[in-house]
Amino acid sequence: MKEDYIKRINNIFLFIDAHLDQELNLENIAAIGFYSPFHLHRIFKAITNETLNEYITRKRIEKAAAVLLHQREVSISELSLQHGFNSNSSFTRTFKKFYGLSPTEFRIANPYKFSKIGQTESKNGQEAGPLAAYICNINNHINWIKMKAKIEIKEMPKLDVAFITQIGHKGMENTYAKLIKWATPKGLLENRNLKVVTLYHDSFKITEPDKVRMSACISLEEKVEVSGEIGLTTIEKGKFIVGHFEIGIHEFEKSWSGLFIWMSENGYKKADRNPYEIYYNNFNEHPEKISIVDFCIPIE
């Protein structure tokens, strides 16, 4: 796939992210990427393995699912209007195709259906009920956070970054290798305040792993010229829960889950911005393969 195609699709991703609550059609979006509608349809499908309409619908439903997870006071009617659906029935029907549950059922059932916990056994050897399993899971994550994390509420500064898009959970290491190869001859890695960041546009709790979109990023002190698949974007300043961890790669999922549980248990609400990770070492160079990392959740 030509790098210029990827750059233009990156611009389309950013436009869709910012306008999910508005009418989006093939012709208007094609103009953003300087494509004909026919060529955009073909190229978008080749890069994402989804048609443009499939992608937009999925993003709207997943954004609604995130609200159901984190903002229980928002009504289903509000959700349908906020996410581009012209009726509750249309929204409910589409939501059920993705998750097998209505939005109301999802809101009630998500701790049991979507938490990644195995079955537990009660003292008499019988399978514990979903509530017992859920409580056990919550307690395990709370204990994990107490042992593993230093948590602060911080105002994080604005970050201007260069990035490459990664779709799917496999291949992130190669994506960073390409970004570093581009940045090295430009002297960008010599920046004393350099930050290496993974920005998450989707959640692994809601989106299928092979469709999760991430940005592999390095921070910039001044503007640079980019081309091909390298893009530029800004992570806006704001209030964040920042969890500082020293963990193995296999512990990232548990750490993220624990931090989101800590957020809920302490009465914070996730803001409508993207979470990210900041890395302070190369885990491959650590004798115990430990990653020193901050997990950052935007909050209201």
UniProtKB/TrEMBL annotation:
- Domain HTH araC/xylS-type, chain residue ranges per copy: 10-109
In the UniProt record, does the keyword Transferase occur?
A: no
Q: Give the GO molecular function terms.
A: DNA-binding transcription factor activity; sequence-specific DNA binding
What keywords is this UniProt entry annotated with? DNA-binding, Transcription, Transcription regulation
Q: Where are the transmembrane segments?
A: none
Give the PANTHER family listed for this entry.
TRANSCRIPTIONAL REGULATOR YGIV-RELATED
Q: Per its record, how is this protein called by name?
A: AraC family transcriptional regulator
Organism listed in the record: Flavobacterium circumlabens
